[in-house]
Input
Amino acid sequence: MLQVQFIRDNKTVVLEGLAKRNFANAEAIINDVLEFDETRRSTQVSLDNVLADSNKLSKEIGLLFKSGEAQKANLLKEKTSQLKENGKELTEKLNEITIKLQDLLYQIPNIPHASVVAGNSEDDNEEVFKEGIIPDLGDKALPHWELAKKYDIIDFDLGAKISGAGFPVYKGKGARLQRALINYFLDKNIAAGYKEVQVPHLVNEASGIGTGQLPDKEGQMYHVTADDLYLIPTGEVPVMNLYRGSLVKATDLPITVTAYTPCFRREAGSYGAHVRGLNRLHQFDKVEIIRVEQPENSYDALHGMVEHIKDILRELKLPYRILRLCGGDTGFTAALTFDFELYSTAQERWLEISSASNCETFQANRLKLRYKNSEGKNQLVHTLNGSSLAIPRVMAGILENYQTEDGIKIPEVLVPYCGFDMIN
Output
């Protein structure tokens, strides 16, 4: 969430940033924010004055009673009654304005970093890096959903029977490969200095608001209405909320955490061949990394996250590229995002498998997550998150790019985790 003072002091910068995102009605919403803020501040001043006058009169009344001047004291008591009524009205007005202001601020996305270009969609993203050899599999290459059926390792129909489309069942070596990927990713992250945690898979509303998933304008989160809890769309939500409301020491930074979680997304409106098989699911597994950093270090940290993910993909020997997302494709909370995509040889298309984002102070302001800076003042941290990695599309990439006439080879780095080197 943007800070009101930042909006007030940098209105032009904010509007230019929102224009990069093609954010509708930006100027009207920003003007409403500033108007509500002005009313809130003037109301707060009026309330403070009323409370100060009331306290002053209360002291005078006490002194009059002590000196035996009860009549004068009772006259002043009538004034305090009116002041209390005025204070009550002003308090109600202040609360109402504060709620309206908060609701407006929740609608405004983060301001893109200066390096982010304007754009409308993924077609305007910038490719900044590409690596790996795309294998030549010939005309007999099968997409992963056919390979999964051929080798009986993923059953989409059985998952649909149990839950519905988008909930696959992993079987035999498919389940073991899934587990191998999770363990490999966690081990890589831990070796890089990330602390592993296990977190709840259901969160309350405050947690969703803290990381920017709520208010959920697209209706993409599964809501357990009976208990007013939400199934997590990403491990970032519970992990980042471990630090909600915290004041951390500068010496505790950076905070680096990794977690494996299942993720749940409604993916409303997702149809067509591009979401077939493992391409887009309602339930999937992911290993997440998050960082909490001092502001001056956060972009070096983002670069380090990108290099870490590149190292994983190099070990898996999968062809991939990195995109810097344009304003129109950057997530609601992020200032800068790099997407990783691997090439699906059988589908002849790129599949997103990871993203690494710097949210700067946007989430920290919602989370009330601060640290004491070198001057001893409380300052908002920068928060960063990344996938390392989302399992289904990595699985799809391995199945398709490692397929042979004899079966599917297992990447060498995963063999010790799988206990086998071939699916056949």
Q: What stands out?
A: Residues 153 and 174 are 4 Å apart (CA to CA). The first strand starts at residue 126 and ends at 131.
